[in-house]
Design goal:
The chain is mostly helical. The chain contains ten helices and no strands.
């Protein structure tokens, strides 16, 4: 045992998984995810197919795990819910689209028509969960309203916002990002800002 008491086997596992993740992300910039095989990833990573299957069932499972951090970064760019007196919503939304554009090949491969339904669902669920959490925090700071079950309405809105953002992003990516991130924010913000769970008409995007 070396390196601060970390077992050598654990270090090998981390190195192998990191190499496989890097290989997949590189390949996804070059071709559609559907055209990437286990052999492609293993060869690029410098490991055997057996080593690949020691860690992952298939390319889709690796893609989901490898992209988790990137997905979390995307969610972090989204504007917060509530009033937007400082006009920060469009700027935050532009950063979201800019992050997508920075890895356009990867996201196009993952979210496109020949990508991975498993990964697309993973993105949708993580985004919806983040939206739902923000909606609940936002609602907690408001006066009580005589309405139906709040969790049900929050779940519907969270699913709607997540689906809308993914749909717009996927379409933009498939069209080779014809509009700039700033322009996409300008086009998308009025639609999302209208989704105000409090009915005020001035709320930002839940994120």
């Amino acid at each position: 045992m070396k390196d601060g008491g970390v077992p050598s086997g654990d270090r090998r596992v981390r190195r192998t998984r990191a190499a496989l993740a890097r290989a997949l992300l590189e390949l996804a910039e070059e071709r559609d995810l559907s055209r990437i095989s286990v052999s492609d990833v293993a060869e690029r990573a410098g490991v055997s197919r057996t080593a690949f299957y020691d860690h992952y069932r298939d390319v889709h499972e690796l893609a989901e795990i490898a992209c988790t951090a990137m997905i979390d970064d995307l969610i972090g760019f989204l504007p917060a819910s509530g009033p937007d007196p400082e006009g920060e919503g469009p700027e935050a939304l532009a950063a979201f689209f800019a992050s997508l554009a920075g890895h356009a090949g990867l996201y196009r491969g993952l979210l496109g028509p020949r990508g991975s339904a498993h990964v697309a669902d993973h993105v949708r669920r993580r985004l919806a969960a983040a939206v739902r959490d923000r909606l609940r925090r936002d609602a907690a700071g408001r006066p009580a309203e005589p309405a139906g079950p709040p969790e049900a309405s929050h779940d519907v809105l969270a699913a709607f916002v997540a689906g809308a953002l993914i749909g717009v992003a996927a379409d933009w990516l498939q069209r080779e990002c014809p509009q700039s991130p700033g322009r996409m924010a300008d086009l998308t913000w009025p639609l999302l800002s209208a989704l105000d769970p409090g009915g005020r008409g001035d709320a930002g995007v839940p994120a």
